[in-house]
Amino acid sequence: MKATALLFFSSIFFAFFSCKEVGPNINLSGGGGGNDTSGGGVDTSQKKTVLIEDFTATNCTNCPKARDIIDNLLSQFPGRIEVVEAHEGILSYPLLNGDPALKTQDGLDLVKYLNDNADAPYWPIGAIDQKNWEVSPGIFDVLVDRNLWTTYVQQELDSSLAVKLGLNFSYNDVSRQLTGSVTVNFVKTISDALNITVLITESGIVAAQLDGGTIDSNYVHHDVLRDIITNVSGDAISASKTAGSLWTYTLAPYTVSSDWNADSCRVIAYVSKAVSALDVLQAMGTPLKN
To answer: Domain 30-287 maps to which CATH number in 2.40.40.10, 2.60.40.10, 3.40.190.10, 2.40.50.90?
Structure first.
């Protein structure tokens, strides 16, 4: 009983206070390479898919409310949104003995990449296509409050496409190796430097979550970031980027952790600007096991 009370009051304390967290240096080793190609299997009829990156934590009182917003958007716009739930920061740790660790170094590195090398200012907070949004007159931010997500997602869904993607991945259940490629079809000529990012998420993870003032010991987490296979910022696209051209990124063989449920994992790829603005031009995901 005393342990339960202590856990509850420490949860309330950490929900209102945070401190700077310093992680190790970012690992800048890449996960694959690219070359020009004339194939790819890109569905030319595809529409804009929006990327939501939700920076969240298990000891965050309002994080379940942010997930409710995401679930509502997913039901409104099926097949048009990819989600990454990045657990990071001082409030992200297992609340109960035996709970899996959802916090990752990649989650921390990602929020620092999007937020000028600073931690997330609070939880939950998110990026919508990694755009720098005008959150109030003259004030711009990549990380925005959950109450703005629906508006920005709807705006992005209506935007025209500059690139289209084709995913061609294969997973071996015995070796647990993921191989494959992503083909980028340039619909418009692009002068900006571009990166491609490939990552893995996992859904259906049961771990305790603070929800309001209570702990839900059976909370089910979805779209949890497990690993960014490429650089956190993405790997450079080495292509002419002229309208009508194709380029393929080939993934180096990647071993999926035995701690993850491969049946519930998803591979997500996206193309984004690489310098100054970080806008995601297109995102696409597919189950690890097709």
So the answer is: 2.60.40.10
Nearest residue to 146 (alpha-carbon basis) of 220, 270, 52: 52
Q: Return all residues near 137 (Cβ < 8 A) that are at least 6 apart.
A: none
Task: Compute the mean pLDDT over every residue in the chain, rounded to the nearest whole number.
Answer: 89
Residue 40 pLDDT: 60
Instruction: Give strand ranges (E) for the chain.
Output: 32-36, 50-56, 81-87, 125-128, 133-136, 139-141, 143-144, 163-172, 177-186, 194-202, 205-206, 209-211, 214-216, 220-221, 224-228, 235-236, 246-255, 265-273, 280-287
Antiparallel, parallel or unpaired: β 265-273 and 280-287: antiparallel
Mean pLDDT of 21-41: 39
Q: Give the pLDDT mean for 168-195.
A: 97
Residue type, 235: D
Q: In this predicted structure, what is the pLDDT of residue 34? A: 43
Q: Is the pLDDT of residue 21 over 60?
A: no
* Domain layout of the chain by residue ranges: 30-287
At 193, is the secondary structure helix, strand, or coil?
A: coil
